[in-house]
Amino acid sequence: MGSTPKTIPILLVTANVGSIFEDPEPMLKIWTEEFLATVSKLNPKFIALHCQEVGGKNYENSMRHVEDFVNLLMQSNELRLFDRVRVYLDEDYSSAENFTALGNVYFVHESIENVMIWNFKELEFEACSGKEIHSGNIESVVTKEKAKFPQDFFPKCKWSRKGFLRTRWSIEGTVFDLINIHLFHDASNFIAMEEFPSVYCKNRRRALEHTLQRFHDDEYGKAPYFLFGDFNFRTDTDAVVKKLTDGLRTVHVQNNKNNELTKLQYTNEESEVILTVGKKEFNHSDHQNIFLNPSVTYLKSFDKEMSAFEDNLTEYPVTFQPSYPFEESVGKGSCYMQTRCPAWCDRVLISHAAKALIAEETDNVIYDLMGRNTCMGDHKPVYLRATILSNSGLSAKDDRKLTSPVNEIIDSSTVTRYIYLNSIDNPVKIFRETTV
């Protein structure tokens, strides 16, 4: 009988941090304290923090605060035993064709003995030691892959920051990819209401399909992957409005100058306005109770965007409230803004191969919001705490169709051992070890 695999508790966090850089004086401290409190509570040994909108929307002015953000984390007492750190911050906003404003931050606990990170240039793993921060222009950094979505995905925009940033890891013999992604948002509630899937949903779907195909045809060899970021998934807005306004009268409010529709108001028999929908307004007369009440589960039934990807991706049950849009002022951290229909924009999605890496005991899995009662910006971070198995994954029966878990070739002339990840389509070297 084989020995029981070692288990490694991991914490995967996705956080759109744009709004915390708009008001950095209080928000950076508040945000990091909540993040570190979660780390202390969950006690992971490997942490992956994927951030979107690093530096905020006015990044020319606020990018300088990103260094403070990273220092608060790295110098914290809670992370003092994490002796290996990798930070990737795409901050070069002067390069419109490359800039994504994504940031991937990884912390490895001293108790993890064997950890390696993939070199996308040499096509092999290399030892992960010490602490490295890659910021500014990171195009030449070889331990990450970064891409923006093609220009034709956003033809009506001059350019877009949307894209993905990927790293590949070997933790105690288990190989997997960690991918940060940021998809397109809904610009207008009116357009989002026209149909489902909306034009915004179709753009997100196209970009995500493009990304998944990229990993399916992976020149670096296929690996199980965790895909977590701001997907901007929204509810079926028209269906939600119909649910909320059943039996109400619709009033069209138009601009007197050009007769353009500015608002839709839904009123009861007493002419009281129950719901108002504008281009950037979504305001219910009982807004917080309607969307924050945990007993109100109807909204989740309109969360449909993930279903288009079930052949490739899975997700643990979503039992938490929508992660967006929360108030950005410190005193209202548990309230929703009245701008958009609340939605589960921020997700941790898992390839079917990656799901096989997670220990089956459900008590080890926590999928939740961070900072429910704390102001974390307009997006609440979403996290997955799970336990992965060591020496797992390479031989898993999944869509990679592995012919064998590994193949070793000894080059006696250089005393070098090469290990290959064997895929029918694309055998790729994953580790090189030279004997001294």
UniProtKB/TrEMBL annotation:
SUPFAM superfamilies: DNase I-like
Domain Inositol polyphosphate-related phosphatase: 6-392
Transmembrane segment boundaries: none
Keywords: Hydrolase
Pfam families: Exo_endo_phos2 (PF22669)
Enzyme Commission designation: 3.1.3.56
InterPro entries for this protein: Endo/exonu/phosph_ase_sf (IPR036691), INPP5A (IPR039737), IPPc (IPR000300)
Stated family: Belongs to the inositol 1,4,5-trisphosphate 5-phosphatase type I family.
Protein's recorded name: inositol-polyphosphate 5-phosphatase
